[in-house]
Automatic annotation (TrEMBL), chain A:
Protein name: Nitrogenase protein alpha chain
MF terms in GO: ATP binding; iron-sulfur cluster binding; metal ion binding; nitrogenase activity
Keyword Iron-sulfur included in the entry's annotation: yes
Pfam families listed in its UniProt record: Oxidored_nitro (PF00148)
InterPro entries: Nase/OxRdtase_comp1, Nase_comp1_asu, Nase_comp1_CS, Nase_Mo-Fe_asu
Cofactor field: [8Fe-7S] cluster; [7Fe-Mo-9S-C-homocitryl] cluster
Oxidoreductase listed as a keyword: yes
UniProt xrefs under SUPFAM superfamilies: Helical backbone' metal receptor (SSF53807)
Function: This molybdenum-iron protein is part of the nitrogenase complex that catalyzes the key enzymatic reactions in nitrogen fixation.
Automatic annotation (TrEMBL), chain B:
UniProt name for this protein: Nitrogenase molybdenum-iron protein subunit beta
GO molecular function: nitrogenase activity
Keyword field: Nitrogen fixation
UniProt keyword annotation of ATP-binding present: no
Matching PROSITE patterns: NITROGENASE_1_1 (PS00699), NITROGENASE_1_2 (PS00090)
């Protein structure tokens, strides 16, 4: 591949001046020779009228974080649309297990108060209270989530009061989220709101201790296409116990006991880092940023986890599992590398995935030229050390910060959680293994572009510059990419494939990408009667 | 699947509020879809970003096509101070960056609740010469996605259609209702086959079923042109297909430009298709051409040939009223028994019409519900099951839980491809429906029967 000397100003030239000035700050080029990270603007308002990939606070709260909790019945309080669109939209696979029988799974259902005009005028609190009573009577759930939509905040329904009263009536937790769509500038606000409530109302309320020598929680893993299950398989073979995921295939029944774990793994930094930090402060559980996307990344992650406990047997077992898994997948990966090698891609997806997938693509011999997040903050691009320098604006000030203190009974110092000496623990922290994330920038290819809140116009222009072979994106842009004559893979839903994690997942991904690139139809777009003309061109 | 649904029927007053597994969604998605049926149009969602994102996602998942739209990107500030500044900025930016011919704005529950005055804001906006901005009010707390489709159709007529005062042209306007592009294509073909020129709008053919051409066109070559829509005020009549989705627009065109609207059903099934053809024949004094006669004869022939494959089978039908009503009529024609009929869209006349058809056919013991949801349907099925489900893709959970085959018809169908291109309207649509229905029933029989009953000869 060649490093094109892309001129960002030229790309933005047709935009009105004000828009140009705004967007320029969201686009950064990796320049390895510069020696320092450039600053990128993120988590600020989308320019009105720009065709954005972003969603809203409700989408981040209900759609991403709390909706997948399988044994909680989630009521969307509002008109019908929001509940409808967040119903069966994300592929957060869930199954029954020891703690959740089949008749306690609600995550595939859609509950809406279906507010009508009169509810908007006279208030919807009574309707919500009544619906809670009815669903408790019909379904007997263990716990209920109540998510707010735009009009709720405007008409001033007091979700807290309704939930509290219903909790007293029914004796089950009823947890509300003031995640009105207009809050913040993207889904990110909703993640934060959900994190606060999960931390305050769920984690630490259970009394069952999870059995296992090394108990891990898996934060920011949503089990798209069974990703979490594949990771759990590998972790359990090494000797770990996964206490709970947040929130793919997770259950209220297990989330409430998460405070008893030894170590938190953070997969999606953006949507869940709040909880990781708060659990560290409140319970003393350290956290480790992990990446199970890509073979080398998985190996590094497995070694990092083993290092966190420092048990020789665990380290040996880790190497054994790595060796065995690697041997099983290497020939298959090599087969697909033949098709993928040398190809380039763009990737736009939220969370940490635009970063993570670069490792997997490199395993296939591919390189990502342009990468961006929909709803990231600066630290997701530039690393956590910039957090103190991020100025909070009016939009982010609207999201309440939860300040936690060490729990007087349940706090255990991190080094004791990890069963190691204070010195050894300090060393791990100092070396940047624990409680650290360096962001996407260090792993971008030199000359590549990081773009925040990428919009349709810019994507099209960047395609002209870089001529990628493939674009990883969501459904809204998938078919645009196809019309451009480029293959696309949905990286939100994996086009109903998956899992893509760990070793076996890498093979599935490799096969899917290879098929996307090589499907015979790409060569048939120009009909035979136009081919001679094309050749003359 | 759905094991949490109670096995026993609920007491009558157990559920009085809210919706569980709805059969409707909100107005803006319908408005956005209708706006995509104008050539060179960029739909614009006036509210927070999530709505626009959700609607584009829903349409892209159903059609497997790009569904472009911009948003006013409200944050808390706009929600407090009003969205006028956001909309004006949006209009300016959209014309500068994407250069559409027209922007079709629809509201959301957010902008409706704060009471943004759309006509005034649009009047105060900078609109380049020769370009248009139109709007429809689409509060999500009223009606359904069908209402939103209807409201945008009415908006298109109110803003654009004109009458030049000359005698009306021998031409039909066609308001196709909330249907797939494949259906719209077929409806146009039928009218064209009869030798009558027509203007269809909204017309999502070529927009939501566009071919791959290797270069992306933000505004695909399909859709009704603004000129055609403007000229629709000079047509002789409007064929208004579907009371819920088209009649308001037709009434508006009638009062604005004096074009009489002929209210018809969406032509699903033999009778509704016959009605469309008779309306065109009567309105324009044309004969029914032989190809259409042949097509009709083929349908009747097929109905006679294979009636025993489906006759007497019970079926649950759910979806949008304009689709469900003629579909139920056709199922009755096929000799099937529509046992449960539901729509999520409000409107008591739905129940009246369907009950009327059932009564006329002498079918007793069926349940019909407007403003129903799939939890209602599931409860009914638990009480007494049916042989077949017909409805949108959300029905697949009941289909699995209760082991009933599902024929996917309507919106949305997320989990299958090709359906937006394949019509269920007209006589050809009848054949396709018969094929889909009889095939799933036969597959079912083959799957379940004993080895000695597994037969090739039927």
């Amino acid at each position: 591949m060649t490093m094109t000397d892309v001129n960002i100003d030229e790309i933005l030239a047709p935009m009105p001046d004000k828009v140009k000035k705004n967007r320029r700050k969201h686009i950064v080029k990796k320049d390895a020779s510069a020696g320092c990270r450039p600053q990128i603007e993120a988590n600020t308002r989308t320019v009105p009228g720009i065709i954005t990939q972003r969603g809203c606070s409700y989408a981040g709260c209900k759609g991403v974080v709390v909706g997948p909790i399988k044994d909680m019945l989630t009521i969307t309080h509002g008109p019908i649309g929001c509940a409808y669109y967040s119903w069966g939209t994300r592929r957060n696979k869930a199954r029954t297990d020891d703690s959740t029988p089949p008749d306690q799974i609600y995550s595939t259902m859609c509950f809406s108060t279906d507010m009508q005009e009169s509810d908007i005028v006279f208030g919807g609190e009574k309707k919500l209270a009544k619906m809670i009573d009815e669903v408790v009577e019909i379904f007997h759930p263990r716990a209920i989530n109540i998510c707010a939509t735009c009009p709720i905040g405007l008409i001033g329904d007091d979700l807290g009061a309704v939930s509290k009263a219903a909790e007293e009536r029914h004796g089950i937790p009823i947890i509300h989220y003031n995640c009105e769509g207009y809050k913040g500038v993207s889904q990110s606000a909703g993640h934060h709101i959900a994190n606060n409530q999960i931390m305050e109302r769920m984690i630490g309320t259970g009394t069952e201790k999870v059995d296992g020598k090394y108990v891990l929680n898996f934060l920011g893993e949503y089990n798209i296409g069974g990703d979490a299950w594949e990771i759990e398989r590998v972790l359990e073979e090494i000797g770990y116990t996964v206490g709970s995921t947040l929130t793919g295939d997770s259950a209220y029944a297990t989330i409430k006991n998460m405070h008893t774990a030894h170590l938190n793994l953070v997969q999606c930094h953006r949507s869940i880092n709040y909880i990781a930090e708060m659990m560290e402060t409140k319970y003393g559980i350290p956290w480790l940023k992990v990446n199970f996307i890509g073979i080398d990344a998985t190996i590094d992650t497995l070694r990092d986890i083993a290092q966190c406990f420092g048990d020789k047997e665990l380290i040996a077992r880790t190497e054994l599992v790595i060796e065995r898994e690697l041997a099983a997948v290497t020939p298959e990966i090599e087969r697909y590398q033949k098709i993928c090698r040398g190809k380039t891609a763009f990737i736009f997806v939220g969370g940490s995935r635009s970063h993570h997938y670069q490792f997997l693509l490199r395993n296939l011999g591919m390189e990502v030229m342009v990468a961006g997040y929909e709803f990231a903050h600066r630290d997701d691009y530039e690393g956590r050390e910039v957090i103190p320098t991020i100025k909070s604006d009016a939009d982010s000030k609207n999201i309440p910060e939860l300040h936690v203190k060490p729990d007087t009974e349940m706090y255990r110092p991190p080094h004791l959680r990890l069963k190691m000496s204070q010195e050894k623990y300090d060393e791990l922290v100092a070396s940047g293994v624990l409680n650290e994330y360096r962001g996407m920038y260090p792993d971008m290819v030199n000359g590549g572009i990081m773009i925040d809140d990428a919009n349709h116009f810019e994507t099209e222009e960047l395609v002209k510059v870089f001529k990628p072979d493939l674009i990883f994106t969501g459904i809204k842009d998938k078919y645009v990419t196809h019309k451009m004559g480029l293959p696309s893979k949905q990286i939100h839903s994996y086009d109903y494939s998956g899992p893509y994690t760990c070793f076996r997942g890498a093979v599935t991904f490799a096969k899917d990408v290879a098929h996307s690139l090589s499907t015979p139809a790409w060569k048939m777009i120009t009909p035979p009667w136009e081919q001679s003309i094309t050749e003359q061109r | 699947m759905l094991e949490c649904t109670p096995k026993e029927p609920l007491p009558k007053d157990a559920r009085t509020t809210g919706s569980i597994n709805p059969i409707k969604t909100c107005q803006p998605v319908g408005a956005l879809y209708a706006a995509l049926g104008i050539h060179g149009c960029l739909p614009h969602s006036h509210g927070s970003q999530g709505c626009c994102s959700y609607h584009r996602m829903a349409l892209s998942r159903h059609f497997h096509e790009p569904a472009m739209a911009s948003t006013s990107s409200f944050t808390e500030g706009a929600s407090v101070f009003g969205g006028a500044a956001n909309l004006k900025t949006s209009i300016k930016n959209v014309f500068a960056i994407y250069n559409p011919e027209i922007i079709a704005v629809h509201t959301t529950c957010l902008s409706e609740t704060i009471g943004d005055d759309m006509p005034t804001i649009i009047k105060q906006s900078e609109i380049p010469e020769g370009k248009y901005v139109i709007h429809a009010n689409t509060p999500s707390y009223h009606g359904s996605h069908v209402t939103g489709f209807s409201n945008m159709c009415k908006g298109i007529v109110s803003y654009l259609a004109e009458s030049d005062g000359n005698p009306k042209k021998e031409r039909a306007n066609i308001f196709p209702g909330f249907t797939n592009p494949g259906d719209m294509r077929e409806i146009k073909r039928i009218v064209t086959e009869m030798g009558v020129p027509s203007i269809m709008y909204p017309d999502t053919t070529g927009v939501m079923d566009s071919p791959v051409r290797k270069t992306y066109e933000m505004f695909p070559r399909g859709g009704a042109t603004i000129e055609a829509i403007q000229d629709s005020g000079n047509s002789k009549m409007t064929l208004s297909l579907g009371a819920w989705s088209s009649d308001e627009a037709a009434a508006t065109l009638q009062s604005k430009c004096g074009v009489p609207g002929v209210p018809l059903r969406i032509p699903i099934g033999v009778k509704a298709t016959d009605d469309l053809i008779m309306a065109v024949k009567k309105g324009f004094g044309v004969d029914v051409p032989e190809p259409l006669e042949v097509e009709r004869g083929q349908v009747i022939d097929t109905l006679i040939d294979i009636h025993y494959q489906y006759e007497g089978k019970t079926v649950a039908v759910f979806g949008d009223p304009d689709i469900v009503i003629p579909l139920v009529e056709f199922l009755i024609t096929m000799g099937m028994i529509p046992k449960y009929v539901l729509t999520g869209t409000p409107g008591g006349k739905f129940e009246k019409i369907v009950n009327g058809m059932l009564e006329e056919a002498g079918i007793e013991g069926s349940r019909v519900k407007a403003e129903g949801d799939l939890f209602d349907l599931h409860q009914w099925i638990k009480e007494e099951s049916v042989d077949l489900l017909i409805g949108n893709a959300h029905g697949k959970y009941i289909a699995r839980a209760e082991d009933i085959p599902l024929v996917r018809v309507g919106f949305p169908v997320f989990d299958r491809a090709v359906h937006p291109l394949m019509p269920i309207v007209g006589y050809r649509g009848c054949l396709r429906l018969i094929e889909m229905i009889s095939n799933v029933l036969l597959d079912r029989r083959d799957r379940d029967c004993l080895d000695e009953d597994y037969e090739l000869i039927l």
